[in-house]
């Protein structure tokens, strides 16, 4: 798998992952700044038995994670000024959030402004500032995944009317 994938990101270490993406793709810091959408409002604790079952059921995935977690940290060893860059990324993210986001909200199951969600799970969404509501970057960064995917698909395949979901028939 290492021969196929030059870089594997680990969501548990999101800032570090974005810094590796920045280096691999020769991007600027502002090109890897992002806002987290579709995050659960709160984590539900798991019992030790459930954790054990998950590890048993997903043993292959766990093996892959352990392997790529190790290679991930080896790649990070070669990144100069890692802590300084993480701090800079946090500052840039905070500045973007202050510009774009009026408030972070919690969306219930039937609130489509936060996108798809599993029944019983409340997820975080955003209300934009006045300036943010006029800025396409702010709009795109706070858009739920499905509408954003549809937007990208329409740009990439403007004549392919029935791409994935029935809503693609509507453009």
Fold and architecture overview:
- The protein contains six helices and two strands.
- It has 171 residues and is mainly alpha-helical.
- The chain has one domain (11-170).
- A two-stranded antiparallel ribbon has the order 1-2.
- Its main location: Golgi.
- InterPro entries: Gal-3-0_sulfotransfrase, P-loop_NTPase.
- Keywords: Glycoprotein, Golgi apparatus, Membrane, Signal-anchor, Transferase, Transmembrane, Transmembrane helix.
- This is Oidioi.mRNA.OKI2018_I69.PAR.g10804.t1.cds.
- It is a single-pass type II membrane protein.
What key phrases describe this protein's structure?
single chain; 171 residues; mainly alpha; two-stranded antiparallel ribbon; 6 helices; globular
**Percent helix among the residues?**
40-55%
Low-confidence residue ranges:
none
Output mean pLDDT. Answer: 85
Number of strands: 2
**In percent, how much strand structure appears in the residues?**
5-15%
SSE string: HHHHEEHH
Number of domains: 1
Order the strands across the largest sheet as they lie in space. 1-2
Radius of gyration: 19 Å
Count of alpha and pi helical runs: 6
**Overall geometry:** globular
Largest sheet: 2 strands, antiparallel
Distance between the termini: 39 Å
Structural class: mainly alpha
Subcellular location: Golgi apparatus membrane
Family: Belongs to the galactose-3-O-sulfotransferase family.
Membrane topology: Single-pass type II membrane protein
Keywords: Glycoprotein, Golgi apparatus, Membrane, Signal-anchor, Transferase, Transmembrane, Transmembrane helix
How are the secondary structure elements laid out?
Blueprint: H1 14-25, H2 48-57, H3 59-77, H4 82-100, E1 101-107, E2 123-128, H5 136-142, H6 145-156
Antiparallel strand pairs: 1-2
Keywords: Glycoprotein, Golgi apparatus, Membrane, Signal-anchor, Transferase, Transmembrane, Transmembrane helix
Subcellular location: Golgi apparatus membrane
Organism: Oikopleura dioica (Tunicate)
């Amino acid at each position: 798998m290492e021969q196929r994938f030059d870089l594997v990101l680990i969501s548990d270490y999101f800032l570090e992952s974005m810094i590796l993406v920045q280096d691999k793709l020769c991007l600027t810091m502002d090109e890897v700044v992002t806002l987290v959408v579709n995050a659960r409002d709160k984590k539900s604790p798991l019992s030790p038995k459930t954790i054990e079952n998950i590890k048993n059921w997903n043993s292959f995935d766990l093996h892959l994670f352990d392997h790529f977690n190790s290679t991930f940290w080896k790649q990070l060893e070669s990144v100069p000024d890692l802590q300084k860059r993480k701090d800079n990324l946090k500052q840039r993210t905070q500045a973007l959030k202050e510009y774009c986001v009026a408030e972070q909200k919690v969306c219930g199951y039937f609130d489509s402004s936060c996108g798809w969600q599993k029944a019983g799970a409340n997820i975080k969404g955003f209300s934009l500032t006045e300036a943010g509501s006029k800025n396409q970057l702010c709009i795109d960064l706070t858009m739920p995944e499905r509408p954003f995917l549809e937007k990208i698909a329409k740009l990439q395949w403007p004549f392919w009317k029935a791409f994935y979901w029935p809503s693609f028939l509507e453009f």
